[in-house]
Amino acid sequence: MMDMHAKSMTELIAGLDSGEFTSVALTEALLARIAAHDDTLNAFVTVTGEEALAAAAAADAARASGQGGALNGLPIVHKDIFCTQGVKTSCGSRMLDEFISPYDATVVERLARAGAVVLGKANMDEFAMGSSNETSFYGPVRNPWDLECTPGGSSGGSAAAVAARLVPAATGTDTGGSIRQPAALTGTVGIKPTYGRVSRYGMIAFASSLDQAGVIARTAEDAARVLGVMAGFDERDSTSIDHPVPDYVGGINESIKGLKVGIVRQHFDEGLDPDCGDRVRDAIAVIESLGAEAIEVDLPNIDFSVPTYYVVAPAECSSNLSRFDGVRFGHRAENAEDLLDMYCRSRGEGFGDEVKRRIMTGTYVLSAGYYDAYYLKAQQVRHLIADDFKKAFADVDVIAGPTAPTPAFRIGEKVDDPITMYLNDIYTIGANLAGLPGMSVPCGFVNGLPVGLHLVGHHFEESTLLRFAHQYQQVTDWHTACPEAFQ
Amino acid sequence: MSAGWEVVIGLEVHTQLATRSKIFSGASTAYGAEPNTQACLVDLGYPGVLPVLNEEVVHMAAMFGLAVNATVAPRSVFARKNYFYPDLPKGYQISQYELPIVGRGELFITDAEGNEKRIGITRAHLEEDAGKSIHEGLDQSSGIDLNRAGTPLLEIVSEPDMRSAKEAVAYMRKIHSIVRYLGISDGNMQEGSFRCDANISVRPSGQEALGTRTELKNLNSFRFVEKAINFEIERQIDVIEDGGAVVQETRLYDSDKDETRPMRSKEEANDYRYFPDPDLLPVEISAEYIEAVRLELPELPDAKRQRFIEEYQLKADDAAILTNSRPVADFYEATAGATDAKPQLVANWVVGDLSGALNRDGLDIAESKVSAEALAGLLTRIEDNTISGKIAKQVFEAMWDGEGSADEVIDSKGLKQITDSSAIEAVVDKVIDAHPGQAAEYKAGKDKLIGFFVGQVMKETRGQANPGQVNQILKQKLSD
Q: Given an 8 Å threshold on Cβ–Cβ distance, is B47 in contact with A91?
């Protein structure tokens, strides 16, 4: 029998349904793996073993009486950005090191209702600001494929946990690539749905107009299962959209024959590692062999996406993070002399360097006299980029390219060079600026490190992305590769 | 006011909207609860929470916009006003900045000469209130009560069209009257539901350019508005006449000392870094929605006053007083509709005796101890000569004290007016016989003695004789 931890959710459902094993047994096995491996990986901020076993027992009871939701008894992990009632929700920050959320995020609620068993909270870049998981107050997460490397970020803990077979799927959030880039760097599948597809309620905000929750899993099918539960309108989030949620799992088996794949020239320019480029081109060739047609499309303003993002996202974050003032919750400096001193020291002590850098950038671009030149201009460029995508999608069903410019890089390699670090998201940011769904699928290795194929779809066409990825995974086995130390 | 100076005043009126729940959360807006018992996670600005607009505030703002003949914006946008303060949970206030929900409008006040004067309204926008800091009774620390955080406000900004403190008060009263007519605010000034900031400057009469203005913050009574503005006008004129210059600043009015003084300049050094709130969608209002709101608008103070003058033939002053508040106007109409007494008589009673009794007992018209129907019953008895106006006052007091309806009081106290001529004649004869001297003087031409005789007859009848009849019979008998 195949070890439980190596199974996909689809396989686990079969095992649970047939009585081959119980959710409690599965949960125990995965908790044991976490205990064995997480000292090395540092993928978890919190492990909720007791709660998980109780949830697993409840799931087994439900299954025995013929009940239970779509994910009944299946283990998952939440990125520590999602509020979980009664459980520490740190957002990777000292600021919230002692914050116990009094409520559940909508995503957490929905997954719990579907029967998912939460093993714990995943490490992440502080307030989701980072592309390497090195900005976390809890230290960097290590990449299961090479422990000297980062797993990417900001959903690095989620990606590493899934890649290392500590859990079959994890939630993540993606503001500029924070699901897709770590998925690419860890050889996992990551999907960031359309902006508004998944409720942001209870997801600690970084940049509200860009943040979107999604899934990291090992197969497109598993991602479809989890996303199907997470997606849907939520009246508590005014930006969530009341649009029917299709049967993602049901739709993945359809052929992609006759569909059109757009290739963007700039995505293969000099910034891309040539070997990564080869893997991505190979993947596109496979997709063509499945009957899809690749054509070149133009996104004339896509080169402006990184600078645009680094105005809009910091602007929103500078305001979103103002609530962390030491007054009502979170870190408060001791022995403050007066109010201003309490603000300055609480925030000075509570936030790390990258968060401070973005708060300062954001404060600057919103300031009187700079607003028009930066914030307003960035919003205008954002519209241009969104229009470019709209025009491109008149001709194609998906746009394909690399997820990240390089495979996983070494811990410490880029930490002192924010600009190089920011360029990690050069291919993914466009989808956030335009609110489009994006997905990364494992498509090979360079020097033993995974490479991801990036797919972007029309608004609300997550099903098309999942279908492309699933069809691709039917004829490739990159996603079944397991890092040596985590077999 | 010093001669040779012109005063320029603009007001920002903050009106708390009378919704049951807050503007962006489901927490209650009720006043006076224990601190922090009406603040949910959204009001507390917890990590991950999101605002959801209470649709009722859009409805209320649209009503106000239409009531002041303003454009209701088809698209308005909420923006964040960023600053740190302990009673501001999120570190920003959700307000509206570049695209407010209500655009240019106008209303009319009566100026010092009794003429109608137009005051322009620049805009009105929706925003959330902050909480409040509590320093009293706490040793070495400050408390924060966030019950008020998230309470919906409509901030109404006027053009600098007012030229005196009196005009400013008249404008504020008009806004007060309108929002209460619309039922969109309780206008309770003690509880802070209705307050204003005043922008004031002075310039030499005839000068076009505006003088430097100061802003007076948080004026929360009509009386304070007038006193604070008048103080500030005098202060500015004194400064200039002494060769100084007015400093643009925010000042607070101290009602105990009746003076204004500058707020700490730090409070003004803020750059609020407004930007559109990405958590909220733009508010889009269709033309159909606006028309539907227009149809449900109640009759407004100006229209009602005009109608009272025309329909009831009331004196302009009385019509204005009666229509200042909708419950009073409704009370008047309910009374007038239930009696044949002349509308002006009804007005006299509502404006006079009824208002007097309410004021004396500190009651609102809704709490009146004499209902509109009961008052109508009383006035009917004046009209049909059952009692005189003078006796009616006595009956009214008894009704106020809970002694029953007009008819019950009249019966039980035997106050029915004597209209039987023979009965009155008997009394008249008796009075004339008792005062032969005065009768002789009257006959000799001392006409004003008629008053003496009327008084005597009324005294004999304990006021119950019909005064008109008494007069007529007396004159007849005395000239015999």
A: yes
